[in-house]
């Protein structure tokens, strides 16, 4: 049984290109990325780019935060900004 993420990807590919031959893989890939974003997923590198790590260090949320809240905020902040620093 496919996972929900696999279902999202499969549906995106199926909906992107109905042709039998000469499939447009670029169109399919764009459809997959769009479907993932709509489902609140983002494709990011396994390791954060150096520029993002430096930026995140300078933008650590201030104030008293529970460790879980700090980690959640940092994760969200880094994922939302990875494209700016992935070079």
TrEMBL record:
Name recorded for this polypeptide: Uncharacterized protein
The species this protein was found in: Azospirillum oleiclasticum
């Amino acid at each position: 049984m496919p996972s929900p993420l696999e279902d999202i990807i499969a549906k995106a590919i199926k909906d992107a290109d109905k042709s039998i031959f000469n499939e447009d893989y670029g169109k399919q890939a764009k459809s997959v990325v769009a479907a993932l974003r709509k489902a609140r997923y983002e494709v990011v590198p396994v390791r954060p780019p150096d520029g993002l790590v430096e930026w995140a260090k300078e933008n650590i949320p201030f104030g008293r935060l529970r460790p879980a809240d700090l980690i959640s905020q940092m994760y969200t902040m880094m994922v939302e900004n990875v494209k700016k620093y992935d070079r």
